[in-house]
């Protein structure tokens, strides 16, 4: 959970990483193949905000994003209630949530993501092993199997909030028992952008002021780009952020979390 000072700042938090056990478990989708893909050698990590927000431009191809948008539109999406639970941020969108370790593994090691995260080169600077552990918050295991699909249509948005960290049991192919893990960074994979007719929907981060006497820095805006992956710290280190209202078209996002050993 974010520290109390953060909770009090806007009086709203969000914890979308915990599956809803009150509803029937949805059927695992027959996900399309993740092809074509861009090799790791043609991709790079860039700091949108040093040590807080990292992007991977062109992580997925335009063709692959279009394939997934067409497929995801066929899923049984649920509209999030406009009136949230006490303490939650206002979120109005359509979503699908599934616990799918196989898809999480495909997205992790079946793409360039594993190579980019475990051997990071950020803005041209290669990180050694200690720096890599420090950046991600520990020894990275992979992605959270809790996969969330978000669709924001015109008029939908996600108000200012923080993303919680979660302790989970990480499935391991090399061990009969799951590995105790925790989530440290949110992963957002954008499938649409103004190039596909989506207007608005930017993810905006609000850095804390250096001190109580100083003004807060300017907001950091992550513009939508087709196929861009965005990673940002969550839990106690999460920045206040929001998904701006979509004014035209549709914003599609695949969400997971980076998991480290605990």
Describe the protein in words.
- There is one protein chain.
- With 262 residues, the chain is α+β, with helices and mostly antiparallel strands.
- It has one domain (47-80, 91-261): Jelly Rolls.
- 16% of the residues lie in helices and 34% in strands.
- It contains five helices and 19 strands.
- Strands 1, 2, 3, 5, 8, 9, 11, 12, 16 and 19 form a ten-stranded antiparallel β-sheet that branches. The chain has a five-stranded antiparallel β-sheet with strand order 4-10-17-14-15, with no helix packed on it. The protein has a two-stranded antiparallel ribbon with strand order 6-7.
- The model is unreliable at 1-14 (pLDDT under 50).
* Secondary-structure element series: HEEHEEEHHEEHEEEEEEEEEEEE
CATH topology, which one?
Jelly Rolls
| CATH class division | Mainly Beta
Counting DSSP H or I runs of 4 or more residues, the number of helices is: 5
> Given the C-alpha coordinates, what overall shape results?
globular
**Unreliable residue stretches:** 1-14
The CATH architecture assignment turns out to be Sandwich
Descriptive keywords:
single chain, 262 residues, Jelly Rolls, globular, 5 helices, alpha+beta, 19 strands
Summed up:
This protein is α+β, with helices and mostly antiparallel strands. Helix content is 16%, strand content 34%. Strands 1, 2, 3, 5, 8, 9, 11, 12, 16 and 19 form a 10-stranded antiparallel β-sheet that branches. Strands 4-10-17-14-15 form a 5-stranded antiparallel β-sheet, with no helix packed on it.
List the helices and strands and how they pair.
Blueprint: H1 4-10, E1 46-49, E2 53-56, H2 62-72, E3 78-79, E4 91-92, E5 94-99, H3 101-109, H4 113-118, E6 121-122, E7 125-126, H5 129-136, E8 140-143, E9 146-153, E10 157-161, E11 167-170, E12 179-190, E13 199-200, E14 203-206, E15 220-222, E16 229-233, E17 240-243, E18 246-248, E19 250-261
Antiparallel strand pairs: 1-2, 2-16, 3-5, 4-10, 5-9, 6-7, 8-19, 9-19, 10-17, 11-12, 12-16, 12-19, 13-18, 14-15, 14-17
């Amino acid at each position: 959970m974010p520290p109390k000072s953060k909770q009090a700042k806007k009086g709203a938090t969000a914890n979308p990483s915990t599956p809803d056990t009150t509803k029937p478990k949805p059927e695992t989708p027959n996900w399309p193949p993740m092809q074509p893909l861009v090799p790791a050698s043609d991709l790079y990590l860039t700091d949108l905000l040093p040590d807080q927000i990292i992007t991977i431009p062109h992580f997925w191809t335009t063709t692959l994003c279009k394939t997934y948008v067409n497929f995801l539109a066929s899923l049984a999406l649920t509209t999030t209630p406009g009136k949230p639970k006490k303490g939650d941020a206002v979120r109005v969108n359509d979503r699908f949530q599934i616990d799918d370790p196989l898809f999480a593994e495909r997205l992790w090691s079946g793409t360039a993501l594993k190579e980019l995260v475990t051997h990071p080169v950020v803005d041209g600077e290669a990180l050694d092993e200690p720096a890599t552990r420090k950046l991600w918050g520990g020894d990275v295991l992979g992605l959270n199997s809790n996969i969330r699909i978000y669709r924001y249509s015109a008029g939908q948005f996600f108000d200012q909030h923080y993303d919680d960290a979660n302790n989970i049991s990480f499935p391991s192919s090399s061990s009969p028992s799951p590995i105790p893990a925790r989530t440290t960074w949110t992963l957002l994979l954008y499938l649409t952008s103004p190039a596909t007719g989506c207007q608005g929907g930017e993810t905006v981060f609000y850095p804390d002021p250096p001190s109580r006497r100083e003004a807060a820095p300017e907001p950091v805006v992550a513009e939508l780009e087709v196929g861009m992956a965005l990673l940002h710290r969550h839990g106690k280190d999460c920045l206040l952020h929001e998904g701006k209202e979509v004014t035209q078209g549709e914003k599609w996002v695949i969400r997971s979390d980076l998991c480290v050993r605990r």
